[in-house]
Structure formats: C-alpha cells, structure tokens
Amino acid sequence: ASDRSGSSVVFVFRGTFVHSTPQAALQILEDALLGVDTKGKIAFIGDGKDLQRLSQAFGFSPSEVTQLEQHEFFMPGMVDTHIHASQYSYIGTALDMPLLQWLNAYTFPVESRFQDLAFAQKVYAKVVKRTLRNGTTTACYFATIHTDASLLLGQIANDFGQRALVGKVCMDTNSSVKHYKETSQESEDETYRFIKELLNKKYPLVKPVVTPRFALSCTEALLSKLGAIAKNNNLHIQSHISENTEEVMLVMNQFPGSESYTDVYHKCNLLTDKTVMAHGCHLSDEELALFRETGASLSHCPNSNFSLCSGVLNVRNVLNHKVKCGLGTDVAGGYSSSMLDAVRKTVDASKVLTIQNPKHNTLSFEEVFRLATLGGSQALSLDDQIGNFEVGKDFDALRVNVAAPDGPIDLIQSDGPKVLLEKFLNLGDDRNIVEVFVAGRKVVPFASEKSD
Ligand code: GUN
Ligand code: FE
Question: Which region is the signal sequence (predicted)?
C-alpha cells in the first residue's frame, strides 16, 4: 500500500478496484480501501485490513467508509481519444459511403450549421451528457470551424464536469460546402482567439487542442502555422491520418515533396508527444517508427473503420512498435458514442486479423481494457494525472454494478471480479454505471437535468 499521509481525505470507498498499470494489463485489488482528498486526488489505496492504521493516518472515521455491494467494482473512467461532438447531431445514420464522399455529402453540410449557437448548445449538451453517462470521463473533441460554438463546447464540458480537450477545427481547402471553409489567415487568427479565450475561462478540466482537420483539408502553409502555434504555446494537437487508401493516395498527390502521409505532418512540426492522430489504418512500419520517435500517439477507432469500410488497424503491430495508443468512438463515422462499444469493436477488429492470419496474436480483453483507460491517458499525455488508481492522480472513476436491477446482465453463478469485468465489458451498458466521478466529483447521476 502507498499513501500520502497528512492530506485530508473527503471520502473513502471499500471494495474491489480494477485498473491497469504499464506492467499489468489488469490488476485486481479485492477488499481495497481508496481515499480521495479535498483536491479530488487519490490520497491512498491500501488493504481493507489496514483500516485502523489508514483511518488514523488520514483522519477519517471507519464509520464514514462507503462499502461497495457484492457485484460492484470501481474501474478508471474511460478516455475517448477521438470524438466529433458536432457529428453527434446525425449519429446512427449516413454510413453508406466511404470517407471522402461521406465528408462531402453529410459531414460538411451538418457541421456548417454550428454557426448557429442555439443549435450548437442543444447538440453539445446532449453529447457531453450522453458520453458522461456512458462512462467517458475524458473526451478529446473535434468541434467545427466556428470559434464561438467551440468555446461553448468547452463551457458545457466544464459545466457538466467532464474532462475535455476541445478543438476548433481548421480547414482552408477542399470543402464541398461554400461557407464551410476558412482562409488560411482566418484559420490561424481564429485558432489564436479560440486558445486565448478558452484559457482565459480557467476551466480546471478543459484544455484547447490545435486541430487541423486532416492533410486534405489544409494547405501546407496552414499546417505549418498550426504546428508553430502548438509548439510556441506547448499545446495538444489532433488530426486524422491514413484512414483509407483513397485518402492516402490523394495526400501523396497534394504534397508531392513528402515521403509519406506521416512525413507531411512531421515536416510541419505537427508530430509531438502531445499529438494524437486518429485511425492510422494504412501506416507503414517506417511511419510507425516516426510516431515512436516523436512521441505522437494513435487513436484506434474501430467502429468508424468498419462503418466507413476504411480499413482494419493492426493494434498489435502498433503496440509492438511502442507507439502510444488509445481508443476512440469517432462519432459519427462510428455509430456509437459508448467506449464500451469501442472496446468490443477493438476485440472484433483484432479477431478479424486472426481470421485472416491465424498466427496473429489476438488482443485480450484485459489489454483492450487498458487501451480504453490507461492507454487513452497516455495517448493524450495525461497519464501523470489520470488513467489508473495511482496515489496522487485525480480520482476519475466508474462505480460499476454488474448486477444492476433492470440491467442487461444476468448473473447465473457467483463470478469473481475478473469475470465480472469481462461481462461488463462485453455485455454492460450505462445501466451498470451507477456513479461516475471526475477529479473526485460525482458527475453522474447528474446534479440537475436543467440544460437539455
Ligand atoms: N477525416 C477528416 N475529417 C474526418 C471526420 O470528420 N471523420 C472521419 N472519420 N475522418 C475524417
Ligand atoms: Fe474523426
């Protein structure tokens, strides 16, 4: 057991905790005690047998400890490393075309509507609430090109208590929609304004992220400017890379001086240890090596990769190259906003590769659990703050009841904690997520249902 004696503890839970470490995809702590301090950080995690000693060291009474029920456990909150908040407006529809046709036919026309702040408010409140309820404690969002609506997304995430990276999308070329495009100058200026105004709000859990949509939507001049902005202000960067083969071919045509798609971003200083790139289905091993060298990470978005018939990312190969990797829903290319779906589709994608090649080393559910939690925190360079139940990290956690009444899971015999986790990951939904904590604050159930 480790602890930080002296800090004052505001609540303590006793029961089963499951999480991941860099060494162990799944660590199960049975009859553990976990205390959270006034700053929402984990003050200690120890053995239930040490109740007396811990209660004296941290100044709480054993009677204040909340005991979990028999089929309950705590797990770290899930990290959605790639989701388009604006596309929540048409989730579950329009999946009948490949990527580039889909962008022009559905995505750009819908995203252009977010200059209307009332529409943005409605959609953004719904996506933040839905993802929180589904157990996404941290989300890395794309908004749209509209600065004020993007700022509103930051405000809504803050109001509901979700940890969020928020990006104002940048695009200065190749849009099918006349008004859904910026000049390079506008894109640069508005990115500055977005960053400055969001940072001025001093939301404790919300950060801006520099967001070139993808190489095909940006001129080289704009990509370079955005790389410089990120570097000079030490900011996160997000984009898309190597999602489908037609896209890769067009990128090589649009940037004839580059050796690869990855090289396009690298030349513009867009690959850093605070960069997360979505998809990467068609990256070469050389490109993965460049990710590894620069510290850039990948967001694996299997629902979207299947739904738009983009490709199947070999996550095993990504991990073998020691590239940081998290999971993303990629709403609305992905039709589910739930990270549990991303977990299941990640296993499915790995099994597709095993069907194609029986020698493929299929991802285990424990490894995929780690990708959804600790892996996501690493991919977003937040693993000093979140991702597992280490002392000193923020308490971002889900209280899961596998036997929730009216829930989707029937327990037949008395299962151990590892099987309970496996059943939750494969069969569970929001009915099993009875409480959600972000930075020690209970954010689900919602305090009020006012802003819809
Ligand atoms: N590439 C560029 N824009 C997008 C987008 O909105 N969704 C997906 N899946 N890929 C993209
Ligand atoms: Fe995307």
Answer: none
452 Cβ contact list (under 8 Å, min separation 6): 122, 125, 126
Task: Report how far ligand 1's centroid is from the alpha carbon of 138 (Å).
Answer: 20
Place of tokens 């006034």: 38
> What sign for the dihedral angle of Cα 258, 260, 261, 264?
negative
At 21-77, the pLDDT tens digits run: 999 999 999 999 999 999 999 999 999 999 999 999 999 999 999 999 999 999 999
Task: Tell how far the Cα of 117 is from the centroid of ligand 2, in angstroms.
Answer: 22
Q: What's the distance, Cα to Cα, between the start and end of the chain in Å?
A: 43
Q: Which among 412, 382, 413, 415 has a CA at the least distance from the CA of 396?
A: 382
Residues 6+ apart with CB under 8 A from 76: 19, 20, 137, 373, 374, 386, 387, 388, 389, 396, 397, 398
In whole angstroms, what is the distance from residue 399 CA to residue 428 CA? 13
114 CA from centroid of ligand 1 (Å): 17
User: What residues line ligand 1, using a CB cutoff of 6 Å?
Assistant: 84, 99, 103, 107, 213-214, 240, 243, 304, 330, 333
Mutate to test the pocket of ligand 1, among 213, 277, 307 (most ligand atoms within 8 A of CB): 213
Q: How far is CA 171 from the centre of its chain?
A: 23
Beta strands, E only, 87-223:
136-142, 163-167, 169-170, 206-212
Question: pLDDT of 233-281, one tens digit each?
Answer: 999 999 999 999 999 999 999 999 999 999 999 999 999 999 999 999 9
Shortest-distance ligand to the CA of residue 308: 1
User: Which amino acid appears at position 159 of this protein?
Assistant: D
Placement of tokens 């109740």 in the chain: 51
CB atoms within 10 A of CB 276: 25
Three-class SS of residue 1?
A: coil
CA 92 to chain centre: 19
**Nearest ligand 1 atom, CA 247:** 1
Q: Which of 87, 100, 103 to mutate to test the pocket of ligand 1 (most atoms within 8 A of CB)?
A: 103
Q: Which atom of ligand 1 is nearest to the CA of 214?
A: 2
Q: Find out whether 237 and 209 touch, Cβ atoms under 8 Å.
A: yes
Which tokens belong to 38? Answer: 């006034």
